[in-house]
Design brief:
The complex is a heterodimer.
Chain A lengths: L2 H25 L8 H29 L5 H6 L10 H4 L5 H22 L5 H29 L3 H15 L10 H8 L10 H14 L22 H9 L1 H5 L6
Helix pairs in contact in A: 1-2, 1-8, 2-6, 5-6, 5-7, 5-9
Chain B lengths: L7 E7 L7 E7 L3 H12 L7 E6 L11 H5 L23
Classes of the chains: A mainly alpha, B alpha+beta.
Chain lengths: ~250, ~100
């Protein structure tokens, strides 16, 4: 692969893997959400993310040109080859933690897709234009919950604030520029992650203030997940997600 | 708030071809906005609708089934309330 196609390949993995891992985390709520209606809502979001993953991993495989398809990339890579941000692999915790993680990612995701919708890359542009509608709804869903829990009862406020505080440290990575990011930005594929920060801050401030929640202090972090460095949680998640394909390689329905 | 305290909302959906909103079921939600998103997630997953109404079930005033005799039976033997009861005279035009 040339340098530029390697950067594109890695970008597709970064977004595709983030969608895949977050979708899997959400699917762990299936049958366990607070009420049936919310169970369905979370699964809808999970399935949206999985659908988006398929496009991105299929395209990653094409860019790489080694014959790996979406399934090979999803089920036959180990933790250090996954490029998702660490935010999305964090355990579900309670409902508030799941929503904090979701709200942080949704708003970042939306801003990123907005940039991708004018990408020089046709496939990414088409993907973004389709996915934007889905992700706009994801933002609405998670944002409304944060407001209701933050501005709800004493206990829901406390737990929502705890969740925001606990999860905040993983948001720094979303806006960290790497050498590959700069290369892609110069080629007009996608804007620099750091350029999304102001918009994200604005959206989050609006949600948090309506929810009567405090915005934690930023913590500087390197781009860990993007570089393949992950928390211990990802290994356990992959062990479950990849079990079938690991035990029965290339099994089909 | 316990989950069984969440109020119930009735959901009405208008389909692409439909002119009117039809009752499709109900959802639990903490408030009307969330009832709308829950209804969207539950009842329009397969492209069923282009418009949703939700209304708190408590706000619906319903007739009492026990009084259905008093309410509805008297209408059953009043055939003259149907237009078909009347014969149209031959020389009436534009009816």
């Amino acid at each position: 692969m040339s340098n530029s196609s390697e950067a594109l390949f890695n970008f597709c993995l970064r977004l595709g893997d983030s969608n895949l891992i977050l979708g899997h985390r959400l699917s762990e709520w299936c049958g366990h959400a607070p009420i049936l209606e919310e169970d369905m809502a979370l699964m809808n979001v999970a399935l949206d993310l999985l659908g988006q993953t398929r496009v991105l991993l299929t395209y990653a495989g094409e860019v790489e040109g080694k014959g790996r398809d979406e399934d090979k990339l999803a089920y036959h890579r180990d933790t250090f080859d996954f490029k998702n941000v660490q935010l999305v692999e964090q355990p579900n915790g309670d409902f508030a933690e799941t929503l904090a993680r979701q709200c942080f990612f949704d708003n970042y995701h939306y801003l990123l897709l907005e940039k991708l919708s004018v990408s020089s890359d046709q496939t990414l542009r088409d993907h973004a234009n389709k996915a934007l509608k889905e992700v706009r709804y994801h933002c609405q869903h998670s944002g409304e919950w944060i407001v209701r829990l933050g501005d709800g009862t004493e206990e829901s406020h406390r737990r929502m604030q705890d969740a925001i505080n606990e999860t905040w440290c993983f948001t720094g990575e979303l806006f960290t520029d790497t050498a590959e990011d700069r290369e892609l930005a110069e080629a007009g594929v996608v804007a620099l992650p750091s350029s999304l920060k102001d918009g994200w801050n604005k959206q989050l401030s609006a949600i948090l203030s309506e929810a009567t929640l405090e915005r934690p202090e930023d913590v500087p972090v390197p781009a860990m997940g993007k570089a393949g460095a992950h928390s211990e949680h990802l290994g356990y998640l992959l062990a479950e997600m990849q079990f079938l394909q690991r035990s029965y390689p290339d099994a089909t329905w | 708030m316990a989950k069984n305290d969440w109020p119930l909302f009735e959901v009405f959906i208008r389909s692409k071809q439909g002119l009117d909103h039809r009752h499709v079921g109900s959802v639990h939600a903490i408030d009307a906005e969330m009832a709308l998103t829950n209804a969207r997630d539950l009842y329009t997953r397969r492209g069923e609708g282009v418009s949703i109404w939700v209304v708190a079930s408590n706000d619906i005033v319903a007739s009492n089934p026990e009084e259905s005799g008093t309410f509805f039976d008297p209408a059953e033997d009043k055939a003259y309330r149907h237009p078909t009861f009347y014969e149209v005279p031959d020389d009436v035009e534009f009816l």
